[in-house]
Write a structure and sequence with these properties.
There is one protein chain. This protein is of the alpha/beta class. The protein contains 7 helices and 8 strands. The chain has helices at residues 13-16, 27-35, 53-61, 105-109, 114-130, 155-174, 211-228; strands at residues 3-11, 39-47, 64-65, 82-83, 92-93, 98-102, 136-140, 180-183. The strands form 2 sheets. A 6-stranded parallel sheet has the order 4-2-1-6-7-8, with helices on both faces. A two-stranded parallel ribbon has the order 3-5. Helix 3 (53-61) packs parallel to helix 5. The longest helix has 20 residues, at 155-174. The termini are close together.
């Protein structure tokens, strides 16, 4: 029997699957498919185009307590949920084993200050740990925006530098917490083309992942979960 895993996917347009035509081709689709090989997945997606760290924090702060006794983590009648609720629909505050977060690109383009970024990330982590009892939180490092073809120069370089600054701050913050990680994705060659490898994983808009990009991203998360949660899932899982 597969071990249960409660999964929460949060964030911006990349988390929402912009760049592909269906959720099956997006992060949520690949991720739930990959994790379902070893786990019985209970998952929820809350993502929206244009959301930055301030918007994500606000959404989490507005979550309602879980008042449904049938969805208690220890209830034998607990049912598997696969949902893609609207970002603007209030999230129910229930336990999750793993939270996967894609945030930061809109903080870069919107010039969120480093001070605000640090504050928002800190509060997001603490809320996920306290209110949602997340055992493992995975932030995805900001992508190499200095290589995004949709951005003209010199703006591309400027935003790329800001992305690097936010990534550095994110890594520093995460190191202060147990059970929180930053996933940095290595772009493997798709073919032998000498062209910039980043482009091979991007959609036609030059800003979001395409199918191969989402699959690569998902595979990296699945590997991380498999490595880090062997003892958690099945023994101390919220839904076990």
């Amino acid at each position: 029997m597969k071990a249960p895993l409660a999964l929460l996917i949060l964030g911006d347009s990349a988390a929402a699957g912009v760049g592909v035509s269906t959720q099956k081709q997006a992060l949520s689709g690949w991720l739930t498919e990959g994790l379902s090989a070893n786990y019985c997945i209970n998952w929820e997606l809350k993502a929206k185009t244009g959301v930055n760290s301030t918007g994500l924090l606000s959404m989490l702060q507005q979550a309602k307590p879980n008042l449904d006794p049938t969805s208690d983590a220890n209830s034998p009648s607990f049912s598997i949920i696969t949902s893609t609720h609207s970002f603007d629909t209030t999230l129910q505050c229930r336990p999750f084993d793993v939270a996967v977060i894609s945030i930061g690109v809109n903080d870069v383009t919107g010039f969120t200050s480093l001070r605000r970024w640090r504050s928002n990330v800190t509060q997001i982590i603490e809320i996920l740990k306290a209110r949602y009892q997340c055992r493992f939180v995975v932030f995805t490092a900001l992508p190499p925006m200095h290589e995004f073809p949709a951005l003209p120069q010199p703006l591309r370089w400027v935003l790329g530098q800001r992305a690097k600054y936010l990534n550095t701050a994110l890594l520093t913050l995460v190191n202060k917490y147990h059970g929180v990680n930053v996933l940095t994705i290595t772009l493997n060659p798709i073919d032998n083309s000498p062209l910039n490898n980043t482009l091979k994983y991007m959609a036609e808009d030059g800003f979001h992942p395409q199918v191969a990009g989402y699959q690569l991203w998902s595979n990296a998360i699945v590997k991380l979960v498999d490595e880090e949660l062997d003892e958690l899932v099945g023994k101390n899982s919220h839904v076990g």
